[in-house]
Design goal:
This protein is an alpha/beta fold. It is built from 26 helices and 22 strands. InterPro entries: AAA+_ATPase, FlhF, FlhF__GTPase_dom, P-loop_NTPase, SRP54_GTPase_dom.
Length: 770
Amino acid sequence: MKLSRFVGATSRDVMRQVRETLGSDALIVSNRSVPEGIEVLATLDDPPADQPAPLPEASLPVVQAAPPTSAAESAGALEAAIGALRGALESRLDGLLWGGVEAPGREPQRAALFRALLDAGFSARLVRAMLERLPAGLELRQAQSWARNELVTHLPVLACEDDLLAQGGVFALVGPTGVGKTTTLAKLAARCVAREGRQRVAMLTTDNFRIGALEQLQIYGRLMGVPARSVRDVAELRATLTELGDRKIILIDTTGISQRDRQVAAQAALLCGAGRPVRRLLVLNAASQGETLDEVAHAYRNGAGEDVAGCILTKLDEASRLGPALDTAIRHRLPVHYVCVGQKVPEHLALARADELVDRALAAPARAPALYAPSEADMATLWRASSAVASDTGALRRRQWLAAALLPGRDDGRALLGQACDWLERDVASGQARDRWRGLGQARDPAGQGADQDLAAIRRAFPAACERWLLAVHGEASLNGVGLPGAGLRATVLMSDRGDALGAAQATVHWARRAAAVADPKAVARADRAAADVAAALAGGLPNIPLVHVLDSGHEPPWRVLPPGSAWVMRQAGALKVLHDDCPTHLNAVGKSLGYLPVGPVPAMAGVPALRPAGAGDAGLAGLWASGTEVALPRRGTPPQNARLVCARVVAADGTLLRQLFALTSLSAADADAAVVARWLVRQDQARRAFRDMAWAWAALSGMMDASDPAARAAVAAQLGTACWQIAQAPGAGVLDAMLQSALARGRKLTPRAAPAALLKIFAMLEMAA
């Protein structure tokens, strides 16, 4: 038995070294603390040595007994006993490490993060290793951001497709049955044909067991114009590769073999005997269980010959949780080259991006609780059973103090406080405002420091918050009444297509030309920034997110100022002159000539009552109707500009027409029908108050921020005002009503103007009680 010594800073670190060097079958012999950290002695079962010469036959006693146990059975029993001992030792070691005095489970934010990562499908082993490195003192939102960045950093992906395909070569797709190797190979072949041309690509298959395997590949080959052949053994593989030697890229489809089948090694040996280097790409079904993926990766990486070059994740559209697949790639250090999100060839194959995969794995859409991950109650029970956890009396006293300060004289104060804190923690816009407020105490400029963080939070929230589109509602608030005559605050409210505000972006202070003499010239230059720059900044910070710019009628025509290909909806006045059916007319006349379909009740504002405009909570009693048609805008000297017109009507319960809204849009009816755009117009109309709330937030920050840096103050005011509007309109935000009122001075009434100051006070008190 050969012993190996490993030393690491922590037990997790040294155990990782053991597994990387000796594999999961390593036997831990001993462990102890040394000056360098933790020392572990481990070994692998040595191959059986030569058996000693048998004793003379006469020296063997003759005993009547049961039939002798075979050597294989004895070896199996010994291996089982060693495995059981190893499992017991590792379980004991895990218990000691995880249940120690400074265990991650002792801190609520670590427990919540532990639970969230398990719910996403990541293994307990990986999560524990991450939490060992979690910096102390982080809030839950900061801890979540740290965990997300750690996963992105450690998830290996193909940096550039040229790294894989530029030099060409032979690539074999390997993996178990049913993971989608053949379809994935066809997608990859189509990608290579588009890249290199059909004369430079060929396809082979070694699958001689599945009925129709060759025929399926040949059909794909005929569609793409590339040869597709079958090989049965090493000799045929060598001959075929020699014959196809002028082809730059040769793709091999292999027989699906279970990870528990010994033929995995035989298949690897076949590919190693091809006479040319063959790079194996392991195809993993993202919808499989984590334990299955771990077995597959271990079996195919240790089959024979060279290691696999990387992996391709398939069936992402079928996976309820992406965590197991990413967990396998991280722990086995398998670079993810491509991902497949459907059956279409070749559309549903894309290069893997670590940030997108991690965000998708961590997104929390509406779904049932994880059946195979412990709930918070389960974890609490396990921790209580392992050892008596001393209650954090200090945190409890602080929470009681906070409830007494914000909700005095209420028996349900603590319960209501918990509900309000939970809502603030879940709400994206409130979280962004709180993060911006925290940044006020930092030495760096909050506007420059937080802009990227703001958009990163939007990227993380998009999968769960939006059905299809992210709305960028552009607007401006006058700062005349809050101490900055002649100035306005321009910003973009980022809103889900369901109507929830997620945050603000691109906030700037704009001075009118007549005030330029008393304003900072640099600020004037910033205020003159074109809408094209704003759109470009949003596109750069929100890649691969479908964005719709929602503009008011005062803006320049979007086809002039927005980058080509931008999606937009622009509000218009009823007097706008257009061409309809080649006849000059105006929008009011067009709207009267159309037939309307019911959309449903008008979206109502259902947040804190004191912050809503009069009657906003009853908006749902009115009905919304929509219609659409094609129009053209006449232009001097040039052909008319074609556009799609959407008309929306707000009708009272008695049939009275309350409002008529018009908008032009670049979106087709297939992208967003008239009913969808009509709802957006109503939300845009309601969101005008968000820009007014930004002005009140500007005033609330007067004693906190240096007036010499209006850009930084605008960034904070935009986020704070957006959060106040979200509190006024979001269902469930009503739990903040009593807290906001209590945060104001005695006798002061809660109004939209006072809301930013009240919210800032709540942020401060929550930090004190944390």
